[in-house]
Write a structure and sequence with these properties.
By secondary structure, this protein is α/β, with parallel strands linked by helices. The protein is built from 11 helices and 12 strands. Helix 3 (62-71) links the parallel strand 3 and strand 4 (80-84).
């Protein structure tokens, strides 16, 4: 299927020029001679790989059109490249990025540069669509297999065959998930460049005109800084999360006591600012990956500091206890023995009914204004424990604190993380 590109320009010769340059690459073009006509087209068509739009147009210019496009949930994912003959200055460039633009191309157009930039975004769109279609196919196959299993319960031989096919599809689904992790890594990495431009230009303008800004303008720049910092944190967390799905790591026998002590030392500034007390008991030596266990404990301890009650100094206790064989996890073989590590605090806590939801990606129980964060940290902890064939859970009460329980196998059947 040809990838669709929406061309928006009030001059027919400019539309013809863009189409002539890009036509050899096999794209499908939809043309609009004004911002309003483009919006009418987008009411019915959402499957564009890219929008190329002139900035200077009568009635509704490129910036205004892009802002209206970005307001619609179904359209905000479509990347927009502005085409302009003018350099509008840093302030207008920032305005363009805020409306959803990802780049600028200046006239006279360099055909090779235009084709190269369009090819990058067309390739990202194609890979994304392929992954979505592949996942949908596998989900449909799994659904059909489940229906067949219900219909053929009387025949053990057929059920056995269906189970074999189901395992094959699960293996395929795991491969698709790894591809999605790779795509998330690539997409998050590509978001870094426009974000850097936003931060660079906004900081440059602020430093240049700081002395002439009123209080409202200064606060606006502070909001820009905080918003870009939050987006940077989110991108970094997504990158870290996606790395777990694409790298194989060795298990090693690691003494967790000095490992956790290093994490506590890294957080000393936050501990002093919060007037917190952290007590660390002796922890066991277990087969783990050191590079993954550090971020796990960093997230748990920093969360305990972050979600402290007002005017109550945080108290954090870290200790461990072994479990009898076969106690942890109903689906686990009885021969597996676990060691539990507890991270307990006296913070704000939460209702126990949310104990599973807090480990979901981007799930947050508190607003950004009250407590910072991206909602990725605990999801990262859960994935790290899955890689260790272990578990993480939580016990909590509102205004009484929380206890996070990390269950790590005493032995690992495989020397490399799944």
């Amino acid at each position: 299927m040809k990838q669709k590109i929406l061309l928006i320009d009030d001059r027919e010769d400019n539309l013809f020029s863009l189409e002539t340059i890009l036509e050899p690459d096999g794209y499908q073009f939809v043309k609009a001679s004004s911002g309003r006509q483009a919006l009418k087209i987008l009411l019915n068509e959402f499957d564009f790989a890219l929008i190329l739009m002139d900035v200077k147009m009568p009635n509704l210019n490129g910036f205004e059109t892009a802002a209206l496009i970005f307001e619609r949930e179904k359209l905000k994912h479509i990347p927009v490249i502005f085409i302009t003959a003018n350099s509008y200055g840093e302030e207008n460039m920032i305005r363009g990025y805020r409306t959803g633009a990802i780049d600028y191309i200046y006239k006279p157009i360099n055909p090779e540069l235009l084709r190269a930039k369009v090819a990058v975004f067309a390739d990202l769109y194609r890979k994304n669509q392929q992954l979505i279609l592949q996942e949908q196919k596998i989900m449909a196959i799994n659904k059909n297999l489940q229906e067949e299993i219900k219909e053929r319960q009387a025949s053990s031989a057929k059920i056995f065959d269906l189970n074999r096919r189901l395992l094959q599809n699960i293996d395929n689904l795991e491969k698709v998930n790894k591809e999605l992790d790779r795509f998330a890594f690539m997409a998050s990495h590509d978001l870094q460049e426009p974000l850097r431009k936003i931060r660079t230009f906004s900081d440059r303008i602020f430093n240049k005109y700081r002395s002439s800004l009123d209080n409202d303008s200064t606060r606006d720049f502070q909001r820009i800084h905080h918003a870009t910092q939050r987006m940077q944190d989110l991108i970094n967390d997504i990158l870290e999360f996606s790395k777990l799905g694409i790298t194989g790591r060795q298990f090693e026998q690691i003494d967790l006591t000095p490992l956790v002590r290093e994490v506590i030392d890294d957080l000393q500034q936050d501990i002093r600012e919060k007037n917190a007390q952290v007590e660390l008991a002796d922890l066991p030596t277990l087969p783990v990956h050191q590079g993954l266990m550090k971020p796990l404990f960093h997230n748990l301890i920093s969360n305990a500091l972050k979600y402290a009650r007002k005017n109550v100094p945080p108290r954090i206790n870290i200790f461990s206890a072994p479990l009898p064989e076969g106690v942890e996890g109903g689906n686990q073989p009885a021969a597996i023995q676990y060691h539990r590590i507890y991270v307990s605090d006296n913070g704000i806590g939460f209702r126990q009914e949310y104990a599973e939801q807090i480990f979901e990606m981007f799930k947050r129980l508190h607003g950004n204004d009250e407590y910072g964060g991206t909602g990725v940290g605990l999801a990262l902890c859960k994935k790290i424990m899955e890689k260790h064939n272990g578990h993480i859970s939580a016990l909590s009460r509102e205004n009484e604190g929380s206890t996070f329980i990390v269950s790590v196998p005493v032995r690992q059947d495989h020397s490399v993380l799944a």
